[in-house]
């Protein structure tokens, strides 16, 4: 990436974004991070700083959805400003350079900013055959280890790098693992989601740029401010759940009336994310609002948790066939026990030989 | 694998297998047992009538003991009725059964189910405390009685907490609810809870015996 030396104000103007909009973005970021609004100017100051932290973005086994999400490819927004505040030195999809030049740029950035750059990773890392996923002839594992060695912190963008994602799904043919299973000596923040919400991604980066630290994390390494509450608790359909009003199909009257999607497999009650609050597409809506249940994409192993359309109140493995087999086994055992018991009863009831002798006498 | 995945998956599956095997094993074994031969002449004809009558007359207390056992009977009725309605007529439980048998049935309103669940749980706890405090009940109670009461109460407590989002996180409460159900399923066939299946046949057998001997049932 070419580092622009243009002042931010000019860059904003060139993009048609007013200073008011920029400050609004800073205030929103502060509020998203549960910070005092008084810190908004500090965020603005940090983002405007001519010293832009180096960011190296590595993509492994992923679909580029996370990059698409942060870029809002269809409608570039103020969140994309974050790219003005950082020096994105390596991103396979975005960078102009290609081939050896691109790799050289990465190595140069790593050398120049050793110990100080942010490493962003999307995609899981295959530990099986190294050839499953390579970039410039180097395995993902080697690339990650080399880049992580000089990183100040690692941000795992998306569920694949945070928890393994779809490549990690059973039977995990590539031996995929999340970054945290390989790198254990660096601060890691997980920003899961398939993809994560753009504002969450940019806010985490903004937090690091402003304070030089990572936000407070939960037990899964996710920023608490965004992943502290489940979607169900913030869902506008929650009152219907309380009242027991559920859509039975995606096109019935209940669905049209906006009733709860629990019976259609919504995983909102067990999924921690900010979708119901921040929403997508400039706050237009989120999956549940669009009429589809939450898939639970920001939770580990959501891909192996049974059908997306199976309600949480149903077992994932219990089935009629298993129970019939168990029933047959039970009947067989019962008959065997009954027959054995009858034989024992008959033995006990049979007159003893001594008693017969006495009778004869 | 998360606790919820374990609870919804292998825990519930294996518990159901143990339940099915245990129930049918015991039912089969009991059904095939030899019965005592009747050695005396029936004092009243058609003893099956006595059996059938006894199956249902015992749902209400005998007049002579009515005052003494009224609380026990009423509490028992409330508890058992609440249990059946909550287990089989709560929407999300019907979903659970639908996942197994492939079809559902009409549900009762959530508010009614929550109220019945809370009352049933309160009654069950009251009966447990009574069992612990009453000297006679304490004397005739075994570990099975206490364990069966607690194990039956656990799904109610965890279910209410999960639904109302009380206590731990929803997914944890839901997992504990599934696990408590799994425990109930495993305990059921081998404990006094098995009375669900033996109560009517045993009443029938007792009624027949009494009828034969000329006892009014």
Task: Explain the overall architecture.
The complex is a heterodimer of chains A (361) and B (217). By secondary structure, chain A is an alpha/beta fold. Chain A is 41% helix and 10% strand. Chain A is built from 17 helices and nine strands. In chain A, the strands form three sheets. Chain A has a five-stranded parallel sheet, with helices on both faces. In chain A, α3 packs across α10 (198-211). Chain A is elongated, with a radius of gyration of 29 Å. The mean pLDDT of chain A is 85. Chain B is mainly alpha-helical and 217 residues long. Chain B is 75% helix and 0% strand. Chain B has nine helices and no strands. Chain B has helices at 3-31, 47-57, 66-89, 91-101, 110-133, 135-140, 143-164, 170-187, 195-212. In chain B, α1 (3-31) packs parallel to α8, α3 (66-89) crosses α4 and α7 packs antiparallel against α8 (170-187). The radius of gyration of chain B is 20 Å and the shape is globular. Classes of the chains: A alpha/beta (361), B mainly alpha (217). The interface between A and B is large, with 46 and 47 residues.
């Amino acid at each position: 990436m070419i580092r622009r030396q243009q002042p931010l104000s000019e860059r904003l103007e060139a993009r048609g974004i007013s200073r008011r909009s920029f400050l609004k973005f800073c205030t929103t970021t502060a509020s998203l991070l549960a910070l005092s609004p008084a810190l908004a100017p500090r965020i603005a100051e940090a983002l405007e700083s001519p010293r832009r932290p180096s960011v190296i973005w590595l993509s492994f086994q992923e679909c580029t959805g996370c990059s698409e999400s942060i870029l809002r490819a269809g409608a570039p927004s103020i969140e994309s400003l974050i790219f003005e505040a950082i020096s994105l030195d390596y991103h396979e999809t975005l960078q102009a350079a290609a081939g050896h030049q691109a790799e050289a740029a990465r190595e140069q950035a790593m050398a120049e900013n050793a110990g100080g750059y942010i490493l962003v990773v999307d995609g899981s890392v295959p530990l099986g055959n190294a050839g499953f996923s390579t970039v410039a002839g180097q395995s993902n594992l080697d690339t990650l280890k080399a880049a992580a060695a000089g990183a100040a912190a690692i941000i795992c963008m998306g569920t694949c790098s945070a928890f393994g994602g779809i490549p990690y799904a059973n039977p995990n043919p590539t031996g995929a693992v999340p970054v945290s299973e390989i790198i254990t000596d660096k601060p890691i923040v997980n920003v899961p989601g398939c993809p994560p919400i753009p504002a969450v991604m940019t806010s985490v980066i903004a937090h690091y740029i402003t304070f030089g630290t990572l936000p407070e994390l939960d037990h899964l390494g996710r920023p608490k401010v965004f992943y502290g509450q489940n979607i169900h608790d913030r869902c506008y359909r929650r009152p219907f759940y309380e009242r027991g009003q559920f859509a039975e199909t995606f096109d019935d009257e209940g669905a049209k009336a906006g009733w709860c999607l629990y019976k259609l497999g919504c995983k909102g009650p067990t999924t921690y994310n900010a979708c119901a609050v921040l929403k997508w597409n400039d706050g237009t809506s989120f999956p549940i609002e669009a009429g589809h249940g939450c898939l639970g994409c920001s939770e580990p192993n959501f891909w192996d948790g049974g059908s997306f359309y199976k309600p949480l109140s149903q077992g994932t493995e219990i089935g009629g066939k298993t129970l019939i087999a168990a029933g047959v086994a039970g009947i067989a055992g019962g008959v065997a026990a009954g027959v054995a018991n009858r034989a024992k009863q008959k033995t006990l009831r049979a007159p003893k030989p001594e008693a017969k002798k006495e009778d004869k006498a | 694998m998360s606790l919820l995945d374990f609870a919804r998956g292998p825990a519930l599956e294996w518990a159901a297998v143990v339940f099915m095997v245990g129930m049918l094993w015991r039912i089969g074994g009991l059904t095939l047992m030899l019965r005592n031969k009747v050695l005396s002449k029936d004092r009243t004809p058609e003893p099956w009538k006595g059996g059938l009558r006894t199956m249902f007359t015992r749902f209400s207390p005998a007049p002579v003991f009515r005052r003494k056992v009224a609380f026990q009977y009423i509490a028992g009725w409330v508890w058992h009725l609440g249990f059946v309605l909550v287990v089989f007529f709560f929407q999300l439980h019907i979903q659970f059964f639908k996942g197994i048998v492939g079809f559902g049935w009409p549900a009762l309103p959530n508010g009614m189910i929550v109220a019945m669940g809370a009352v049933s749980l309160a009654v069950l706890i009251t009966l447990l405390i009574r069992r612990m405090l009453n000297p006679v009940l304490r004397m005739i109670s075994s570990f099975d009685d206490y364990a069966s009461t607690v194990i039956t109460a656990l799904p109610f407590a965890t279910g209410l907490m999960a639904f109302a989002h009380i206590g731990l996180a929803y997914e944890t409460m839901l997992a504990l609810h599934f696990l408590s159900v799994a425990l109930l399923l495993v305990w059921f066939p081998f404990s006094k809870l098995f009375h669900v299946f033996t109560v009517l046949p045993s009443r029938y057998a007792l009624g027949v015996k009494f009828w034969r001997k000329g006892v009014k049932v």
